[in-house]
Amino acid sequence: MRPSEHVVAGSGLRSVEIGGVRQEISDILREAIWTGVLRPGQRLIENWLAGELDVSRPPLREAIRVLEQEGLIVSIPRRGSFVRTLTGQDISEIYTVRCALEGMAAELAMEASAADLDRLDQIVVQVEAWDGVSRAELREVVDRDLGFHRSLVNLSGNARLVAMWEQIAGQLRLALTLVDPAFFQPDYIELTHRPLVTAIRQRDRGEVQRLSRTLLDVGRNLKERWDSAILGTAFPVTEEEG
To answer: What is d(CA 200, CA 161) in angstroms, rounded to the nearest whole number?
Structure first.
């Protein structure tokens, strides 16, 4: 298969500017995976990517390793590197870890200042502004939703916890970008945002723990959509090539 057949609509990849080459390549490939320019199951051909991005192969390989560590790329010996195709089991595992990390973060955030919690409330206001989510709006919605949860995790003040959350954030964003927009309903927002901030502000540990565990229900909902093919993928999943 020719390299051009591995990329959607004239590649859609922008070339790399001079500077932090590995980081910029990582950013470009990560965004291409999130937006579907590089599709789940798609093989990454180094020669073609290096030419398209106008970079040498060593920093490209380093960037691929970065995304492999983030779980967005899978490397198979003697076959090559592929964009990860998430499964229902992946979704279940991601949300189990997410629930544990965000639950700990929420408890630690009870020690945050009133000013920090006010800023978190401002993010909630932006999230609550959603009034139905279309496919075109989905990417912005996902960014806002994860922005809230990232801010919450950062309020923990625990650098290692933040690092572990960031390790699954890329896969989480990929899953949410592919989900049927109907997934983002008012009850989802109600369960996972303002009540949690209120409980943190009141330092109600029991309520914080209870609300944090609702992420497991959210994960089960997402997994069911995935497994039952209700999931409206933004782009088709291709088979891994030999």
So the answer is: 18
pTM (whole model) above 0.70: yes
**Token pair of 59 as six digits:** 């920093």
pLDDT, residue 139, reads 78
For the chain, which domains are there? 3-83 (1.10.10.10), 88-227 (1.20.120.530)
> DSSP labels for the chain?
--GGGGSSSS--PPPPPSSSHHHHHHHHHHHHHHHTSS-TT-EE-HHHHHHHHT--HHHHHHHHHHHHHTTSEEEETTTEEEE----HHHHHHHHHHHHHHHHHHHHHGGGS-HHHHHHHHHHHHHHHT--S--TTTHHHHHHHHHHHHHHHHHTT--HHHHHHHHHHHHHHHHHHHHS-GGGS-HHHHHHHSHHHHHHHHTT-HHHHHHHHHHHHHHHHHHHHHHHTT----SSPPPPPP-
pLDDT tens sequence across 109-164: 999 999 999 999 998 888 777 666 666 677 777 888 899 999 999 999 999 999 99
